[in-house]
Write a structure and sequence with these properties.
With 135 residues, the protein is mostly beta strands. It has a single domain (4-133), classed as predicted glycosyltransferase like domains (Thrombin, subunit H, Beta Barrel). Helices cover 10% and strands 51% of the residues. It contains 1 helix and 9 strands, in the order βαββββββββ. It has one helix at 10-22, and strands at residues 4-6, 27-28, 36-37, 42-47, 55-64, 68-72, 82-91, 94-108, 111-126. A 6-stranded antiparallel β-barrel has the order 4-5-6-9-8-7. Strands 2-3 form a two-stranded antiparallel sheet. A hairpin with a 7-residue loop joins β2 and β3.
Amino acid sequence: MVAVLSGKDTAEQNILMQILALRNVPEITDKRDFERYELELTATIEYQLPEQKRERLILQTTNISAKDVFFHTMATLPEGLQVNVSIYLLVDNELVVVSVSGCVLRPKEIGIAISFESNYKVEIISKTADEESIQ
């Protein structure tokens, strides 16, 4: 079974945030436009540096909102680099993948912030989720 949402409007962003809220995760209070949650979710970042082959990182999110995500990592990516992010959630024993394009905002020594573009999709990819689906 595959269900797909294409992130073209605020209503779909609200659906995504409701999925995250169901996980009973504490919200980070700050002055940002969207609620931010401290969540450790498995994610992949795919990117290609000029004149190099396409690369893929498998990381854990540190915190996430409907607008962006932060990863603690020693990997460094240049500011402005276009990336594809896939975030894996287990919802009611189904593996849900949120796929979104984005841009590296702030590469820091402790990690990478990535801003999401407005288009994304959410897929339910299996009824019996396992880590092998990520790789």
